[in-house]
Amino acid sequence: MILTLTPNPSIDRTVELAGPLARGEVQRVTSVVSQGGGKGVNISRAAVTAGVASIAVLPADRDDPFVHELLSAGIDCRPARPAGEIRVNLTITEPDGTTTKLNSPGATVTDQHLEALSSTLLHRSAGVDWVVLAGSLPPGAPADYYAGLVGRLRGGRAKVAVDTSEAPLAALVDALPGSAPDLMKPNGEELASFTGGDPATLESDPRSAARAARALIDRGVGAVLATLGAHGAVLVTTEGAWHAIPPPTKVVSTVGAGDSSLFGYVLGDLRGLPPGECLALAVAYGSAAAGLPGTTIPEPGHVRPDLVIVESLDAVREMER
């Protein structure tokens, strides 16, 4: 079972354009789709679609339509006391796959709101296989909120994954090794933010990305899944390093692709697959998501890990010696 935490959930509204976005002009749209979202919510959706039980913890009123929508989708939603209404995020997609996101900040939380959320999560963490802490933090939350939660979860039965960015990611890294999760999922830009590397180089050069990720492994992180956009992804663990090349994909929307990749890795781990095959499943899920409109979560039939090429990067370790 996968337990997810989304501290700053959103109503994701996707607007699909018939042509390129033209600033300052009036344009017609081909479709508008709204769905309850947020990184943890997306991962819970992917889990249920794949037949894996999942519990989604998030701040919301029990009678909020957001909660009822998740329950109707088969997701065991456990809401905690909210600070206000759930935010609305707007995504604009163009025919060539270009995606523009306009994210609202969310309601400002207090220590009481955060403790209620943490208690709800910790109460349900016993007996699950993975706990996934994902997404941005709402206004008012300290940057080290995730780092503190990882510390409270360490030592339990469940493995812990964290997928975040900016200040919460920096705080997590600063608190290593005490806050070291079993899995981190940065992208090239996020890797560069705490290694000092060039984001473009890390995204385009898998070996450079693997070297950067190795620094996190050396500080106690169990595994680093670094997503590199069109260049696939790199996985680094204490056992070695691998690079996966995705199958040719017509990109429709990149929204949720990273969340799907994280789920693919976790699914592979739940199935007991070796690291390289977990990586292949992660990239297959991410590629499938990129080929679907809006925040559509891939179904197992969309996912083709057999088309993903995985190569060992163990030579990277030799280069570091």
Short description:
This protein is an alpha/beta fold and 321 residues long. 36% of the residues lie in helices and 23% in strands.
Task: Give a verbal description of the structure.
The chain is α/β, with parallel strands linked by helices. It has a single domain, classed as Ribokinase (UDP-N-acetylmuramoyl-L-alanine:D-glutamate ligase), CATH 3.40.1190. It has eleven helices and 14 strands. A hairpin with a 5-residue loop joins strand 6 (87-93) and strand 7 (99-102). The radius of gyration is 19 Å and the shape is globular. The termini are far apart. The mean pLDDT is 92.
Describe the secondary structure blueprint for this structure.
Elements (H helix, E strand, L loop, with lengths): L1 E4 L4 E8 L11 E9 L1 H11 L4 E6 L5 H8 L3 E5 L6 E7 L5 E4 L8 H15 L4 E5 L10 H9 L5 E5 L2 H9 L8 E2 L3 H8 L3 H6 L1 H12 L5 E5 L5 E5 L2 E6 L11 H14 L4 H16 L18 E4 L2 H6 L1
Parallel strand pairs: 1-4, 1-8, 2-6, 4-5, 8-9, 9-10, 10-11
Antiparallel strand pairs: 2-3, 6-7, 11-12, 12-13, 13-14
